[in-house]
Protein: dTDP-4-dehydrorhamnose 3,5-epimerase
Amino acid sequence: MDPLLLSCGAIVYPSKVIPHAKGNILHGLKRSSPGYIDFGEAYFSMVSCGEVKGWKKHLRMSMNLLVPIGSICFHLEAEDGSSAEKVVLGENHYQRLFVPPGVWMAFEGVGQSTNLLLNIASIEHDPTESVTREFSR
Structure:
């Protein structure tokens, strides 16, 4: 599968799943991976089914997002509002979503139990480098 460039500027990259009898191995991110900018921090976020976190736009942070458990729908919008898209990632759609600075993003739990994302961020968290707004569909 080739990378998918979204009109908002985000990119969906295929991610490797290595089947194993005792539990699959899910590839995350390598320094040589496309979309890798730098390492600032990695964190996990959980979102319950039907709940939405966002909208947020980072001004400097690039994000590499993976969903190893559950299923999450990412709502993405270009900075100028010219395009909006949805991408679902999860156990059955294991891919990596690269979100550059300037893209509005919200995410919604769509899996029935635990929905967990990993963000491998290019910079450490800095509350002054992002802006938020209320979520609307």
Q: What stands out?
A: The first strand starts at residue 4 and ends at 5. The mean pLDDT is 96. Residues 4-132 form a domain with the Jelly Rolls fold (CATH 2.60.120.10). The chain is about 0% helix and 45% strand.
